[in-house]
Amino acid sequence: MRHVQVFEQLAVPHMDAAFTLAYWLVRSRHDAEDIVQDAYIRAYRGFAGFAGNDIKPWLLAIVRNVAYRWLSDRKRLSNVVSFDEAFHAEPGEEPGIARIPADTPGPEEQLLRDGERTRLLDALAALPPALREVLVLRELEELSYRDIAGVIGAPVGTVMSRLARGREQLRRVLIEDALKEA
Amino acid sequence: MVCDRSREQLSAYLDGELDESSRREVAAHVAACRDCSKVIDDMRGLRASLAAGARMRASAGLGDRVRMALQKETVAPAAPVRPRLKTSSWQQAAAVILVSLASASGGWMAAMRTARVDRIERDVVTAHMRSLAQGMPMQVASNDTHNVKPWFAGRIDFSPRVNNLAATGFDLIGGRLDFVDGRRVSVVIYKRRLHWIDVYAWPAGQAASPPKAASSTGYNIVSWTRDGIAYWAVSDLNLAELQELPALM
Question: What is the ipTM of this complex?
């Protein structure tokens, strides 16, 4: 059907962006891929309702919705498992939230030295989701404030303040780390 | 002495999101202020590091899996889709049900209410998507409330608000009847820019309740109750603007 091909042509080029956002929300490659697949199907089903010029923010909003729904489902489940995990959680780690898995990045992703990269990714992962997602949308997906506001469903002023706070927190964490190394 | 220029403003400057006169002012300040140029440099460094290290690439198979799933949609659409969580035993599954019922405030009644709200949410979004797929989603087409309101009066036994909101950027398009959660409801149709907004309405169990926002499968929803009528506004318009509606109606 022509309709599917039109959708694919528009949406498939953004799959890495979708995966990046999903990954930084749920912090598991495997689950992020499930979420992207689910989001793309929902996007296709809702495609008749897409009436804009740029499919990327619309698509990312759907990915975000699916990811947050998945996280709240998992949180409900973790009420059962968290008793055990609480015993084994490191100080400062929330029970039920996965650590960054030790993925081997492909050569094209190894643009920072491994130690630096781990520090940076851990710092990003440690941010509250509301700050983390706007940083991902701005620094990795290069969306405008207006588009970010549309994706997260909040006013532009909120986007601006969360970006500033996220950057400040990251900056502080990385400076502290650097001082510890010295 | 550290400069007290706001981080938000510097951040917006870095992103090119300031208006022209603010941009020029900040640029001039940054050129002369060591503290602020350090902050800007740090933020630029952070951006470069993130861009170099935090981007993720999906595995090679994902593209194929998504394409195959989309092909299946064209043959047999609309089985509900949700990435499945793994529960390894009946005991765990039963425990989940118990915990989620107990933890919702009010226990069982709250769980039933939540299930009903989920149904309504699903129905209004589905109805909205269906209407978008049709060429003419309205049964009465008029931007005049004096045509739309009486049209409903002959067909339903309650009286939803129908306002002309053109002055605030919501154009009245018309109305239709639809079904939500097994009952006949009114739909008043608005448009803002390119976004269609369906406002579903039916008699409610309570007189009034404050607006609530939600998102479902890519659509945004704002719901509220006023004068004994429940309103559900569904659109792909962003939530910030959709949330203007309750106050306007």
Answer: 0.79
